[in-house]
Prior knowledge:
The chain is an alpha+beta fold. The chain is built from eight helices and seven strands, in the order H-H-H-E-E-E-E-H-H-E-E-H-H-E-H.
Amino acid sequence: MKNSTTQLNSEELEIFTNPVFFQRKNKITNTVIVLLEKLNHQLENDLLIAQVVTAFNLPPTRGKISKGENYLGYPWQILDYPRVFQKENVFAFRTLCWWGNFYSCTLHIGGSYYKNHFDSITENLHLLKDHPVYICINDKQWDHHHEENNYRLLNEVLNDNNLLNKVLSENDFLKLSCKFPLDQIQHIQKNAMESFHLFSKVLGLL
């Protein structure tokens, strides 16, 4: 049994007993989901994404919005589109809204989708060196936080040959990510679309 106090302080009691807190939480959650639904519609109708689906021979899918209450202690909502999550193979563009932290837009390629395009993808990484793009340096592909043991700025990694070679040679996946402050949530559609178009340079489509 975890050690914990059974006493709530005055601030905690105020939150616990005040329905306005929960009403606002629900309103924020619903607003974020509506924004993700609008983004999903925009992504599904984007011509460049249609080219990506064709170029990588992705199976037809619809966008999926999911949510939870506890990623490292904080609520979250996610939109995945395009999305392929197979046992070995992954191709996804994930927009994550992580309460109390940031929202991020991440291109995640793994398995055969990565191996079959490895040369062109890795050769094109330098096209993003002047942009605030992060690359996953972790060997765990399902971590989403941006601490230094998980993500580093791509430009820093490109200037560190040992780290770059380690990331590219030891992982069977690649994750590129852009993150934004939560107070820019109203710009999530614009930022997500720009992020995907930026990542498309690595895919050789721009």
